[in-house]
Amino acid sequence: MKIAVLSDIHSNLSALQQGLTYLNDKGIDEYIFLGDYITDGYQDNEVIEVVRNVSTHAISGNRDRIESTNFPNPLPINLMPQAWTLKHLSKNSSEYLQTLPTHKLLEYEGVRFLFIHGDNPQIRKPIEDTFDELIEMENFDVCIMGHIHRHFDQSYKGRRFINASSLGLPADGPDYKLLIININKAVDVEVVSLPIMNTFDLQCREYQNSSYFENHKEWGTLVLDSIAYGISAQDTFFKIVKKLLEDNRDACIDEVWYEAFNIYINTNPSTYSRLESGFKE
């Protein structure tokens, strides 16, 4: 039995296509998707259509439950990218996302697998606390998750916990990642790394010409930086936001957002997307 596991695509259609092309001749028996198919880009509906057609099993991630988000009015700038995604989801995409379970318990060759996104329970530090919650939640031998966009493979209390990283927005190096699980008495997990830069130049240009980027240049730039360098540019950005809010607790989030972005691009002068976007100091 050979299973492909793909997680956290985040509207990155070219990464999804690259991953599926790689897997095409690998004798895959089942395709399992771990959620977060949408947001952060402009090809949400296209990604969902591929997942719907290819997946043997698919579960929902926190981003896929966007219908349940309580957007305030007026809408603050930090929520505008997600609101854009919700507005542009097709009816078919929305209905499909609402059918997805939050986890799947499946058995292959006598091995019990728990497939879950990783947001409920939330992956946190110390990670053993999360593992204990999962053990309490379900009876399994191997748990495979995503959500944090970083790969790990750990044994704990007789179970094995594996993170699939991210196919669309990795934060553990400049490669798209997916898993191939071979099950033949033992469980062998191959982490497949696919070079981002093979497709990134064209992807970047097309992304910057999209209405998503036109309406959300700041967030879009962070997304492109994250893809290009395999880091979480969003984490760096939000640390700046947090510091500015601590320094001025009366500040408006919209003002802080723009100020934080200006600090970000001036302290990260060599980022690929900043140069491509034409942002000036």
Question: What is the domain tally?
Answer: 2
For the record, give the distance between the C-alpha atoms at the N and C termini, rounded to a whole number. Answer: 54 Å
Largest sheet, described in full? 5 strands, mixed
Annotated CATH homologous superfamily of the largest domain = Metallo-dependent phosphatases
The CATH architecture of the largest domain comes to 4-Layer Sandwich
Percent helix: 40-55%
Quaternary structure annotation: single chain
Order of helices and strands: EHEHEHHEEHEEEEEHHHHHH
Determine the CATH topology of the largest domain: Purple Acid Phosphatase, chain A, domain 2
Average pLDDT level: 94
Strands of the widest sheet, in order across it, are 3-2-1-9-10
- Over the alpha carbons, how many angstroms does the gyration radius reach? 19 Å
General form: globular
Provide the CATH top-level class of the largest domain: Alpha Beta
Extended strand count: 10
Low-confidence stretches: 277-281
Helix/strand-derived category reads: alpha/beta
Organism: Erysipelothrix inopinata
Domain Calcineurin-like phosphoesterase: 1-184
Pfam family, one: Metallophos_2
GO cellular component, one term: cytoplasm
